[in-house]
Design goal:
Elements lengths: L14 E5 H20 L9 E4 L5 E4 L2 H7 L5 H16 L4 H20 L4 H22 L7 H12 L9 H15 L10 E7 L7 E3 L1 E4 L11 E10 L19 H24 L4 E4 L5 H9 L3 E3 L4 H11 L3 E2 L11 E11 L2 E8 L5 E7 L2 H23 L3 E3 L3 H14 L6 H23 L3 H15 L3 E5 L2 E5 L7 E3 H19 L3 E5 L2
Parallel strand pairs: 4-13, 7-8, 7-10, 8-9
Antiparallel strand pairs: 1-18, 2-3, 5-13, 6-12, 7-11, 11-12, 14-17, 15-16
Helix pairs in contact: 1-3, 1-4, 2-3, 3-4, 3-15, 4-13, 4-15, 5-12, 5-13, 5-15, 6-7, 6-11, 7-11, 8-9, 12-13, 13-14
């Protein structure tokens, strides 16, 4: 008789394991819960969320990425949907709520398919095939228009509509946003790092302005320095202006007063030489990333050079871009090509705070100086402006614009559903389910706008079939079905492409998991 083998124990007692349908059910429910948490924020009539941290700090926003980032989410599958929003934010700067809601709906539809005994692999394959069809639909909806300032301002307005912009309209904010992007645009595209947002509460939102240059928190070393400069020759030093003691650990034996006086005189001469070298180069405005010795500062003041110290590296980079100056690591052999020009410098006082505005003649770096009555208002306005900047850049650099207000989603659902019939086998069910999940986006828009979601969806499909484009246009306390392009409601095509990709990838990754092993270690 064969000896019975003892079962092999692989996992320790500290591990917890969830398998099969239980694991899938848990993951899907977690993903749906995350999507539902941001669903009501979708669209121009979306609601805000108040997020209270453990220390009592409060954030009020309807920005999907911010909401999910600040939520204390522990479930690993739910965290994957948070990553969807983060990826969407990093790649295109907007559409985080759209991507999160779509991922949740894809999971909800998959749940029903699993109940019908469809294998997860079949669902995954169907979703990926449907995603390809979705990209085709977005490409078909991309408008053949020039991306002029008017079009880009429409994109910026569409992004900010429904977000907290204080007492100023999105129309007033769209113009400086587009001007900022156009100011730094090159043939190679737009570097987002060339646009900075500097915030300061204590004034009306309407006081927000575009600065063709940099705003820094520093003030001149010399209190008597002029608070206004124009056309100032500018240098940037990435070093300290102090006495060079050398790196060697050396001792000097001074035996009489004359030797001490000579040492002091030599040190003073070196420090004065710094100021003379800078003055001889024709510098009128100096920014130093390190420290400036008080004696050097005194000599610089005597030469009527306005100097700043402890400039952060990012501010130094921005000043260089704004003024055309090069960052120098040494004072040796300063040439005219190393210097830039500050068209206007001004030191302004706001309450108890002072800021310095550094503007360039042909600034390759610009700043939005954002004002608001409170910290909460300023923070939400900053998020809205960041999204607007990102979508304008996405429209310019990554593939044009499509009609907003759910028009792209209706087109996607229609295109995917129409091609599903040509697919054989059970995969067809997954493709149709993808279309149904996408339909939930305009349905949610309708709900948040105050319309009947079923009637709105029927009307949207009918108008899309008849005219090729249909969206939900917000009107007062409700909305109507119309052509979003005629209403100047535009979204970057890149936002739609990224939302489809990130939502599909997250949903399919979760669906492929049938075993969850957790450990306390």
């Amino acid at each position: 008789m064969a000896q019975r083998q003892q079962p092999m124990v692989i996992l320790s007692e500290d591990n917890e394991r969830t398998q099969g349908e239980d694991a899938q059910d848990s993951n899907i429910r977690a993903g749906k819960a995350v999507a539902n948490s941001v669903r009501t924020t979708l669209g121009p009539k979306g609601m805000d969320k108040m997020l209270v941290g453990s220390s009592g700090d409060v954030t009020i926003t309807n920005d999907g990425a911010t909401i999910l980032n600040k939520m204390d989410i522990e479930h690993p599958a739910a965290q994957m949907l948070v990553e969807v929003a983060e990826t969407q934010e990093i790649e295109v700067g907007d559409g985080t709520t759209t991507a999160s809601v779509l991922a949740g709906e894809l999971l909800a539809e998959a749940e029903e398919l699993l109940d019908q005994d469809l294998h997860p692999t079949v669902i995954v394959e169907g979703y990926h095939e449907a995603a390809k069809l979705a990209h085709e639909a977005v490409d078909d909806q991309t408008l053949a228009v020039d991306l002029d300032d008017d079009t880009l301002e429409a994109v910026a307005r569409s992004s900010m509509t429904g977000k907290g912009t204080g007492d100023v309209t999105v129309d007033a904010l769209a113009e400086p946003v587009v001007s900022a992007v156009q100011q730094v645009a090159t043939d190679a595209g737009v570097d987002r790092e060339d646009i900075h947002i500097h915030t300061h509460p204590g004034a009306s939102t309407s006081a927000t302005e575009l600065i063709e240059g940099v705003v820094i928190d520093e003030t001149p070393l010399d209190d008597a320095a002029p608070s206004q400069l124009a056309d100032a020759t500018t240098a940037i030093l990435d070093t300290d202006l102090e006495f060079d003691t050398g790196e060697a650990d050396a001792e000097y034996n001074i035996t009489d007063v004359d030797q001490l006086n000579e040492a002091i005189a030599a040190e003073e001469a070196e420090l004065e030489g710094y100021a003379e070298t800078i003055a001889d180069a024709g510098v009128e405005l100096l920014f130093v990333t390190g420290d400036i010795d008080d004696r050097v500062a005194s000599h610089l003041a005597a030469e009527e050079i306005v100097a700043f110290e402890d400039i952060g590296s990012s501010d130094a980079d921005a000043i260089a871009a704004a003024t055309g100056a090069r960052q120098l690591g040494t004072l040796e052999d300063i040439e005219d090509a190393d210097l830039g020009t500050t068209a206007a410098l001004s030191v302004e006082t706001y309450g108890e705070d002072k800021f310095t505005f550094v503007e360039g003649a042909d600034a390759a770096h610009v700043s939005l100086f954002v004002r608001g009555s409170t910290d909460h208002v300023v923070d939400e306005l900053e998020r809205a402006l960041n999204d607007a900047l990102d979508v304008v850049i996405a429209a310019l650099d990554a593939g044009g614009v499509v009609g907003g207000a759910g028009a792209a989603e209706i087109a996607i659902a229609d295109h995917v559903r129409s091609h599903a019939a040509s697919v054989e086998g059970r995969k067809q069910l997954a493709i149709e389910a993808f279309a149904t999940a996408v339909d939930e986006l305009p349905r949610t828009l309708a709900e948040n706008t105050g319309m009947d979601p079923i009637d709105a969806l029927v009307d949207l499909r009918a108008r899309h079939d008849a005219q090729g484009r249909a969206g939900l246009v917000s009107t007062g306390r409700s909305g109507k079905v119309g052509d979003p392009v005629e209403e100047d409601i535009l979204d970057p095509a890149a936002v739609k492409h990224e939302a489809v990709d990130s939502a599909t990838e997250a949903a399919t990754m979760i669906l492929r998991i049938d075993d969850v092993i957790s450990s306390d270690n």
